[in-house]
Amino acid sequence: MKKSKPSRFDRSCALFRRSKPDRRAGFTLVEVILVLVVIIIISGIGLPYFAGSYRGNKLRTTARTISKMTRYARSMAIMREETLTVALNHETMEIFLGGNQATAPNEADGELDQDVLKRLGYKDDDGKSSETGGIEKEIHRFLPDGLSVKNFEKDWAEEDDEYQDLYMIRFYPNGQSERFEIEFEDRRGVGIKLENDPISGKIKSEFMQ
Predict the structure, then answer these.
(1) Given Cys at both, which of 90, 103, 121, 153 links 181, Cβ 3.0 to 4.6 Å?
(2) 67-97: per-residue pLDDT in tens?
């Protein structure tokens, strides 16, 4: 049987079908919008959590720094057989440790002799600096920004009253230390409390809301 020749209309329809895009090859506008909405919702839920974890990390870093500093002070006090002090300046948030600074013999009289002693590095107040509490800085660190000391407790010694900006903890050659309890707080009001065992030197930490 002889086949009939396709008409011009049939050829136009076939050409249109070939040129029509395949809807299965891409995404529709509705699908793209739905994906964006899901991403925004997940971000809104997750970002506060990660932001809180970052802020909490400052408190954990502070706890680790103090724990390491006190362990080192205890070990060195035993090894060197001398009293070492860990001091925290609650204004600058600098923590440091060391032994007592060398003091100058208080035998000189007169302004000239005192001036000579100053040039040699000695202090008028028996060699004690108000910034360091008479402690020779051997190791020092600055605690993370945005934190403050909310509370500090210890058995105060008479010498502690001379330095209003410093919280000082002494470690003795027998392995013991002064008992202390300190609480740090960030700008959100979240805090962490550190408490030491004066016998073993271990520090217990607890987050405070």
Answers:
(1) 153
(2) 999 999 999 999 999 999 999 999 999 999 9
Model pTM score: 0.64
How would DSSP label each residue in 125-184?
A: TTT--TTTTTB--SEEEEPPTT-EEEEEEE---GGGGG-TTEEEEEE-TTS-B--EEEEE
Rg over alpha carbons for the chain, rounded to the nearest Å, is 35
Integer CA distances (angstroms), 200 to 71, 74, 157, in order:
10, 9, 21
Q: What is the DSSP letter of 84?
A: E
Determine the topology of domain 55-100+135-208 in CATH: minor pseudopilin epsh fold (3.55.40)
Helices (H), ranges, the chain: 8-19, 29-80, 111-119
Contact present, 133 and 99 (Cβ < 8 Å)? no
Q: What is the pLDDT of residues 160-186, one digit of tens each?
A: 888 888 999 999 999 999 999 999 999
